[in-house]
Amino acid sequence: MLSTAELADLQDRLFQLRCAAEDVVTAAQDGAENEELRKLAAELVESAKGLERLR
Question: What is the distance between the alpha carbons of residues 10 and 20, in angstroms, rounded to a whole number?
Answer without folding.
Answer: 15
